Amino acid sequence: MSEDKQELKDRVMAELENVVDPELGVDIVNLGLIYEVELDEEDNVKVIMTLTSMGCPLAATIVSDIKKALSELQEIQEIGEIDVDITFNPPWDKSMMSRYAKLALGVHES
Questions:
Q1: CB 14, CB 37: distance < 8 Å
Q2: pLDDT in tens, 3-15
Q3: What CATH number belongs to 3-103?
């Protein structure tokens, strides 16, 4: 990956840290919900992510919040289209959370 692409990918990840899971009150990056951010040749963004549960009632809200968070990069034409792909493989579990998220949620490691 070129240095420019990596820098853009880092900016996308930084924007995703502003998207907070409405139920847990912690951002989706620190929760470990973002599995991958892909950029194609035209700088279209594909966010591959999961949810804390298959039946998450706020999936549409989180996807909308992701698109809203990335819209500024889209407006200044740093990125193109935004696609969010939700997967449950591998399934999310608490071990995927950052230390910050575990502290914020009172999750103790065993």
A1: no
A2: 888 999 999 999 9
A3: 3.30.300.130
Exposed/middle/buried for residue 51 (C-beta within 10 Å: 0-12, 13-18, 19+)? buried
Question: Is pTM beyond 0.70 here?
Answer: yes
Q: Alpha-carbon distance 71 to 76, whole Å?
A: 9
- Put residue 68 in one of left, alpha, beta given phi > 0 → left and psi -120 to 50 → alpha: alpha
Q: What is the total residue count of the chain?
A: 110
The domain locations on the chain are 3-103
pLDDT digits over 50-66, tens only? 999 888 888 999 999 99
- Which of 76, 37, 32, 38 has its CA nearest to residue 50? 32
